[in-house]
Amino acid sequence: MGPLGFSVDQLMELAGLSVATAVAEVYKLSEHTRVLIICGPGNNGGDGLVAARHLYHFGYKPFVCYPKRTAKPLYSGLVTQLESLAIPFVPVEDLPQDLSGQYDIVIDAMFGFSFHGAPRPPFDDLIQMLVSLSVIGDSAKRPPIVSVDIPSGWHVEEGDVSGGGIKPDMLVSLTAPKLCAKKFTGPHHFLGGRFVPPPISSKYGLELPPYPGTSMCVRIGKVPSVDISSLRENYISPELLETQVMPNPFDQFRTWFDEAVTAGLREPNAMALTTVNKAGKPSSRMVLLKGVDKQGFVWYTNYGSQKAHDLSENSNAALLFYWNEMNRQL
Questions:
Q1: Which GO CC annotations does the UniProt entry carry (predicted)?
Q2: What does each C-alpha distance from 321 to 292, 296, 297, 311 come to in angstroms?
Q3: 89-137 tens-digit pLDDT
Q4: Architecture of domain 242-329
């Protein structure tokens, strides 16, 4: 146990959870299901084993390559945990030379900041496998590479000295970014390991960003730009026939609204209200539904609001309820 009272297994659990949450934040389960985690013999590999467990519970399908197992109880316990979940362990010799066809994400958890020297077999070949993967120009045709703390084979301060090392798409720095993180050029840089007490931050001059809400990771740097058209999702839902709808629209709305409440949606009474004044100028804003009966809808506002003014001139309005989790809008 260290001077702050943290044990190695505690820190490893926090680190692995941070990696898993960062991966889940960027690489959605609907498109990136199969995750290969390549683990080294030390603490970095232990972080990878923990991340594999959490990714499993997040709904992903992890596969673990752990060629040099450590006999210490901490590591054997992590292996037992994964085996109890029937998470496959893949021997190095069974890995395809091109990982693109079998995995949607590859996590590099081989070596951390304490590694020195040249990688030995089989990790030298594994690193080269990831190097070959990272040089594929079209990122849409290959699985993204996620490196834990530092990319394996990089110098902890100088980075990719040879220029021929792994070029990860995501780097999850742990506790605090290492100097080599300045050389990272990928689109996603996260900080994980939410445990550093203020006295330690002050002692070492660490200016760590605040973590949002209850998250175990925080993005560092600018959010990468995206192709807006690529954000479109495919909405597949059963066809709604006229014969399936209640004759009274208010009764039907109440039924659907009760379903949204039962499903646990946050603020299912939030709706977009669109009005038009006498000059024909439209106005939309979000309001909260207060009640509904056969007379109509009532929402929270005041008589001096823009909405009230518009409705006094034109009583026609449009309401839109959008319940994304239920793939439904009214």
A1: mitochondrion
A2: 13, 15, 12, 19
A3: 999 999 998 898 899 999 999 998 877 777 889 999 999 999 988 777 5
A4: Roll (2.30)
Task: For residues 88 and 60, give the distance between their C-alpha atoms in angstroms, rounded to a whole number.
Answer: 13
The CATH architecture to which 8-224 belongs is 3-Layer(aba) Sandwich (3.40)
- DSSP letters of 281-298? -EEEEEEEEEEEETTEEE
Sheet holding 217-220, edge to edge: 61-65, 34-39, 105-109, 145-148, 170-174, 188-192, 217-220
pLDDT digits (tens, 9 = 90+) for 186-229: 999 999 989 888 888 888 888 899 999 999 999 997 766 666 77
Q: Rounded to whole angstroms, how far apart are CA atoms 165 and 128?
A: 8
Is residue 129 packed enough to be buried (19+ CB in 10 Å), middle (13-18) or exposed (0-12)? buried
Please, what is the angle between helix 8-26 and helix 73-84, to 10°?
A: 40
3-state secondary structure of 317: strand
Evaluate the CA torsion angle 136, 140, 142, 146 in order and state its sign.
positive
Q: Which pTM does this prediction carry?
A: 0.71
Q: For residue 247, give both structure tokens.
A: 């004759």
Cβ contacts of 159 within 8 Å, gap of 6 or more: 179, 180, 182, 183, 184
- Residue showing tokens 């590479």: 145
Is there a contact between 129 and 99 (Cβ–Cβ < 8 Å)? yes
Strands 170-174 and 188-192: parallel
| Torsion from C-alpha of 239, 241, 244, 249, nearest 10 degrees | 110
